[in-house]
């Protein structure tokens, strides 16, 4: 029951990130880099406080820091691609592309680890991938293609991040180190782009909520349940997020659910259901 509860909360947090990011960018309250920087830095601060409360020897444990560079880079790549992609994608469409890309990445990772999918899993992967391709096809050659490709890159990074998380034994420490290690890169990026970086007080509020709540604490929950899930299960569970994000976009941003998105979602979720069959 605890695993189910944590998983549901984590998935709701993922959807919340899409809604908050899209709200900030679509309303002009923040640009992509400003939102990402405030999001990750605020998450790092919250997680650092949690880590200091819980641990006394983390700063001396150099192995903990060196082991987290790969997931930290993946976290940064995911967050940057995510924010820049939402300059041109709606909330639901962005979440669909993101988590379909995550699914494909994690399933390939599972294959590389030796997992042998059954017939239902193979059919589910094909069906879910076809849903993504159905959504992507009309956008080839269109201005939204850059956002689409950025979100696919973001999904790849999150898939690798999640696969790495299956090995963690301490979700709070691992997530905290991941966030903290992104800060030097963010500072350099902010210095490089300054003073063109833009973010209002309202945009900063969106970013802080996204970083401190739906990212930092949501990712701790996700890392806590990942060791209990197979790569296929973790991948397909995340495909519930686009529906939640699309509903959030409908409620908060008044974004329409287009027929293309509706059909693509049906295809993706049909794939999800098939991969759950034994």
Q: How would you characterize this protein structure?
A:
By secondary structure, this protein is mainly alpha-helical. It is 78% helix and 0% strand. The chain contains twelve helices and no strands. Helix 2 packs antiparallel against helix 4 (69-85) and helix 5 (91-112) packs antiparallel against helix 11 (241-252). The longest helix has 25 residues, at 2-26. The mean pLDDT is 82.
Task: Summarize the structure in short.
This protein is mostly helical. The chain is built from twelve helices and no strands.
Q: How many strands, what sense, and barrel or not for the largest sheet? A: none
Binned strand content: under 5%
Tell me the number of strands: 0
Q: How much helix, percentage-wise, in residues?
A: over 70%
**Low-pLDDT runs:** none
- Please report the number of helical segments: 12
H and E order: HHHHHHHHHHHH
CA radius of gyration: 18 Å
